[in-house]
Amino acid sequence: MTTMAAKGPRRAVAVGIGHYLPERVVPNSEFETMMDTSDEWIRARTGIERRHFAADGETTSQLGIKAAEAALANAGLTADDIDAIVVATSTPDLTFPSVATMIQTGLKMSGGFGFDVQAVCAGFIFALSTANAYIISGQAKRVLVIGAETFSRIMDWDDRTTCVLFGDGAGALILEGQDASGTNADSGILSLDLNSDGQYRDLLFVDGGVSKTQSTGVLKMQGKEVFRHAVEKLAKTAHTALDSVGLHSDDVDWIVPHQANLRIISRTAQKMGVGMDRVIVTVQDHGNTSAASIPLALSVGVSQGKIKKGDVLVAEAIGGGLAWGSAVIRW
Ligand code: ACO
Question: Which residues of 269-279 are buried (b: 16+ CB within 10 A; e: fewer)?
Answer without folding.
Answer: bebbebeeebb
